[in-house]
Amino acid sequence: MSSATDAELLASHCSGDPQAFTELVKRHRDRLWAVALRTTGDPEEASDAVQDALISAYRRADQFRGESAVTTWLHRIVVNASLDRMRRRAVRPWVPLPQESGEDGSRAALIDDSALADPRDAIESRETAMEIQSALSELRPDQRAAIVLVDLEGYSVEEAARILECPEGTVKSRCFRGRAKLAQRLGHLRNPPREAPVRTQDHEAVKDDSGGSADRPGPDGGEQ
Description:
The protein has helices at residues 6-14, 20-40, 43-59, 70-87, 119-137, 141-152, 157-164, 168-190; strands at residues 99-101, 107-109. By secondary structure, it is mostly helical.
């Protein structure tokens, strides 16, 4: 069964094989979970969305016509389930740190604290991850779904269009508008405030690397 293609597994499931759909889920559950989490911004909502999607896929497997890849079909159902859940609730101003599923199905933190030597780096990384996820949650659902698929999951615009069931131009437009909003919201992460010039007791300011002028002490030790 492990050597069977996704399409073969789905066909076997439709033929009554009780293990085929389980194998299909095992192959793709991590990425399906990641898409749901990044789309909803909430681990509980993502878990429920994936569960809803898989139940739907299990029941509607006989409707798969092979016009796209099985993974595209599965992702479409997951994205739709995630967007449905987002429409049922108000967007929260703060969301928990994103999590990912491990190979064993458990949810491990996206940031591994033990891999960071300086605890301050761990705190900063967590704050950055939370801020990025919060910014994503402020996007319109359709823009967020496009950003998640193209920029975070690495799908091509063509593939994302098939998943979202919309024209490629619509995906491009949603990505463009979503990126513009994220750039404005998160611009300070790329362009942190410049540090103030170093001052010493005898110098008013030390010349910086940009070639700007600096105050120097006069002959009597005062400013020129």
